[in-house]
Write a structure and sequence with these properties.
The chain is built from ten helices and no strands. The protein is globular and about 45 Å long. The two termini are 29 Å apart. The relative contact order is 0.14.
Length: 185
């Protein structure tokens, strides 16, 4: 699937501007990890862009990711893409474990991307000049972006084999590259 086709699919199923921006943020972070790991940036980016495209219509955990798997399968998408999208949901780990770099990266950047964007919204310079220390400080505030799992963020860094600080710095850098698309420039 091309990036253009992925964007069309995302916008067909996702009307919420905030969910679209989340998809763009995860795409940017996935592309960054693909670059650092010597993987296909476009493919990894498309996985990030589409990881939640079904969520607005099917938010129930038993449906979310299964509907995207069905739709992507009907469109002849790569099984690796479909299974990576399934794997970002913890309830699917018995069938699609986080045992491959693509799957690990998607899980690792999903919550963190959303959290970094939330931090950017409350900073005067948005993403500009943001440091891991700012993000870590906000992580300690339970009331800030309360729906974001701090444990998932920490587990993501472990999965990627880097320190939490390195992981946060890397994703901040990735999101700075797409700040305009996120409305954060």
């Amino acid at each position: 699937m091309t990036r253009e086709n992925a964007w069309e699919l995302l916008t067909e199923y996702t009307q919420s501007e905030s969910l679209r921006k989340h998809a763009l943020a995860v795409e940017g972070a996935m592309r960054g990890y693909a670059r650092r790991l010597g993987e296909d940036e476009v493919f990894w980016g498309v996985v990030g862009l589409l990881h939640d495209f079904d969520y607005e219509r099917w938010p129930d955990p038993k449906d979310h990711t299964e509907q995207s798997a069905r739709i992507l399968g009907e469109r002849g998408c790569d099984v690796e893409m479909i299974d990576a999208i399934r794997s970002h949901a913890p309830w699917n780990w018995d069938r699609w474990p986080l045992d491959r770099p693509l799957r690990k990266a998607l899980f690792a950047v999903d919550e963190l991307s959303g959290f970094i964007v939330a931090v950017a919204y409350v900073r005067p310079g948005n993403l500009e000049g943001m440091k891991a220390s700012s993000v870590k400080k906000k992580m300690k505030q339970k009331g800030f972006a309360a729906a974001v799992s701090r444990d998932d963020i920490r587990q993501g860094a472990e999965l990627m084999g880097v320190s939490l600080e390195e992981h946060i710095e890397a994703v901040i850098g990735d999101l700075q590259l797409v700040a305009h698309d996120l409305g954060l420039s």
